[in-house]
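Bumping my old thread because nobody answered last time. Still need a sequence for this structure:
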C-alpha cells in the first residue's frame, strides 16, 4: 500500500469534463471474508449504474463509463489483497484506486467532480504520524494514528543493508552481525570493517538510501516522523535526514523483533502532546481573532476564500456533509438539505482547497467545534 498524498488529491481534483463516479467501501484483509469484497463492489457498481441512469445517461454509455470497474471486479488477485478500505475513482481519463488503512462506509457518488471527503482524514491534522523502524537487518515504515498502525510499502526503499548495496564493494568487504535484537539502550548493530569512521560512513550511505526513498514518498507531508532504532543509528540518521518533520524524541533500542502494535504503544505517547498543543493553539487563535475579519464560518464565503488561498486553518465537523452545487464559472452556490444527484459535499470542497493551498485542516467531533458550527476557519488575510 502506498501513501495517499496531497499530490494525489490535486490530481483527482483536476479531473473534469464528464461524469465522475466515486466509490468507497470497507474491505476484508484476510481469510474467507475476502470473498465478500468483490460482492460488495458489484453491488456498489449497480448503484452507480442506477445513478447514471437517473441522470439520463444511455445504457451503452453507462457500460462504457463503468468499464474499468467491471474489469477490476474480475481481478480475483486484487480482491484477495486488500487493506481496511478501498476508494475507487472513475472519470473521463480512466480509473484510480487507493487501498487505505481505515474502513469507509459504503458510498457511491456520481457528479461532475470526484467526491473526496472520505479520504481527507488521511491528510488532515488528525493525530496522524509515521514511524520508521530501521536497522541494517530490517527496515519498516508505518503510517499511524492514535488507534491504528499500518505498514506502508515505500518504492525504492531498501528492506535491509544487503538489498541497499547488493554485491557492491561495500557489501562484499563488510561482514555484519547484529547484537541485542529487540534489546534496549544502545545495543547497536555491529559492523566489522576497516575502521570506525568507514563503518559510520557506510551506515550513512545506507541510511541516505532510506531517506531518499522516504523523501519521494512523503513529498509534501507534514506529519511527524518518529525514528525507531538504537541511539547510535538514530543519531547517524538525523545527520543525513532530509524530511523536515522528524520528531525530536525517538523509540530507542533495536526494533527488529518489536511488533507493530508495540511500536504504536511506544510512539503515540511521544507525539500526543504535540497534537494537543497544535489543536489548542489553533482554537485559541480562532477565539482571539473573532471580530477582526480574520475568521469565517459562512459556507458560501469559505468556498471562494479557500479557492483564493485565504484559509490558513480550517475546522470541520467530522462525519457531517453539506450537499450542494458549486458553479465555479459563474461563482454561484446552491445548498441542499439532503443529497441530490449531481451534488458534491461543500465541506469537502473547502477542505480540499485549503489543503492544496498549504493550509491545515482539523477534523473534529461536532461538540468540540469552535462556536459549535460545522465549519469554521482562520483566514490568512
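Sorry it took so long. Here it is:
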Amino acid at each position: 500500500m502506498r501513501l495517499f498524498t496531497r499530490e494525489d488529491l490535486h490530481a483527482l481534483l483536476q479531473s473534469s469534463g464528464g461524469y465522475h463516479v466515486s466509490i468507497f467501501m470497507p474491505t476484508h484483509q484476510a481469510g474467507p471474508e475476502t470473498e465478500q469484497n468483490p460482492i460488495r463492489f458489484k453491488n456498489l457498481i449497480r448503484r452507480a449504474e442506477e445513478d447514471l441512469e437517473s441522470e439520463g445517461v444511455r445504457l451503452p454509455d453507462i457500460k462504457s463509463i463503468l468499464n474499468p470497474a467491471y474489469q477490476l471486479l474480475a481481478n480475483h488477485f486484487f480482491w484477495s489483497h486488500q487493506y481496511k478500505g478501498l476508494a475507487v475513482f472513475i472519470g473521463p481519463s480512466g480509473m484510480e484506486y487507493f487501498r487505505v488503512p481505515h474502513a469507509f462506509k459504503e458510498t457511491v457518488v456520481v457528479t461532475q467532480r470526484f467526491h473526496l471527503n472520505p479520504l481527507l482524514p488521511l491528510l488532515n491534522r488528525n493525530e496522524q504520524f509515521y514511524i520508521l523502524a530501521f536497522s541494517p537487518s530490517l527496515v519498516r515504515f508505518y503510517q499511524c494514528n492514535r488507534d491504528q498502525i499500518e505498514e506502508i510499502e515505500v518504492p525504492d526503499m531498501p528492506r535491509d543493508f544487503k538489498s541497499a548495496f547488493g554485491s557492491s564493494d561495500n557489501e562484499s568487504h563488510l561482514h555484519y552481525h547484529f547484537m541485542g535484537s529487540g534489546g534496549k539502550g544502545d545495543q547497536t548493530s555491529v559492523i566489522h570493517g576497516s575502521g570506525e569512521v568507514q563503518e559510520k560512513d557506510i551506515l550513512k550511505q545506507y541510511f541516505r538510501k532510506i531517506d531518499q526513498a522516504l523523501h519521494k514518498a512523503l513529498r509534501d507531508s507534514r506529519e511527524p516522523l518518529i525514528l525507531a532504532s538504537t541511539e547510535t543509528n538514530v543519531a547517524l540518521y538525523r545527520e543525513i535526514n532530509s524530511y523536515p518533520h522528524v520528531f525530536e524524541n525517538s523509540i530507542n533500542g533495536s526494533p527488529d523483533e518489536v511488533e507493530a502494535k508495540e511500536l504504536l504503544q511506544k510512539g503515540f505517547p511521544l507525539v500526543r502532546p504535540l497534537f494537543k498543543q497544535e489543536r489548542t493553539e489553533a482554537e485559541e487563535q480562532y477565539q482571539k481573532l473573532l471580530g477582526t475579519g480574520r475568521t469565517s464560518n459562512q459556507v458560501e464565503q469559505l468556498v471562494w476564500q479557500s479557492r483564493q488561498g485565504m484559509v490558513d486553518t480550517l475546522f470541520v465537523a467530522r462525519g457531517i456533509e453539506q450537499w450542494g452545487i458549486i458553479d465555479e464559472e459563474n461563482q454561484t452556490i446552491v445548498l441542499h438539505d439532503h443529497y441530490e444527484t449531481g451534488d458534491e459535499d461543500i465541506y469537502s470542497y473547502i477542505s480540499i482547497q485549503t489543503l492544496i493551498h498549504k493550509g491545515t485542516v482539523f477534523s473534529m467531533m461536532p461538540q468540540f467545534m469552535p462556536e459549535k458550527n460545522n465549519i469554521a476557519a482562520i483566514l490568512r488575510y
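The first strand starts at residue 20 and ends at 26. Let me know if any region looks off to you.
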